[in-house]
Predict the 3D structure of the following.
Amino acid sequence: MRLTAGVLCFVLRNSHVEGDFTSKRLQTVPAGIFDNMPHLTFLHLAGIPDVEELPSLSSLHNLKYLALVILNSLREVPSFEGLSKVNSLQILEAARAKTLPSLAPLTSLTSLGLRYRSAICCNGFISGTCDFTEFQCLPKEGEKYPMTCTGQRVSAEDKARLDSYGDAICLNSFAYDLEASAPSKHTTDELCGGIMFKECTLGGVQGICFNTRMMVIECVTQSSYITMRKLQIQRGVGDACDPAVEAWLGCTI
């Protein structure tokens, strides 16, 4: 499957591309596809583990949010030149890219996350020590591009910026496998049946039926989603709660 420039247009403001771990997934993103999108402010590219190269982002001068998620074949993260308005950058599960481009162009950045199985968090580029012993860095059998150590190091300036974001950067001990937790018939149809906020149990752990990243409704066991919904109900924000489904979250008639 190939994303073509004709699909998108000059006036586009938001682009959310979400793939999965099945065999029918995006293979390439053509060069120049972002060159004529001057109004784009939101770009989320996720679940495209076969894509090896991304085109230049340097023409996206109005971009404010950039997420690169599950790009395990990506050779390198594209330059951040031209992205001075980006205030949120999230890079999750980029297991092949050995380095990170300079953060200097990101002058408006207020939110930064580098998480899950990303080579830059394990190979010594950021920490200075190559370590493949923590959960997110452990070798995976059959992995197309196994992580390897690198002698390259992040600049002192970028290291200081990364350190300022605390646990949002390279929490390698976090025991959560994105591929293993991908939606399945059991976690979607059988446990949730399309009902948002329903209580569910997966692997002996309490969960909530939710559609993370605008995906299918499935049973997720991260406690933060349960906490979030409880707060929404308490404060009367978000979707109106249904006591028949959400009594366990504090919803009353």
Notes: The radius of gyration is 19 Å. The chain has four helices and eight strands.
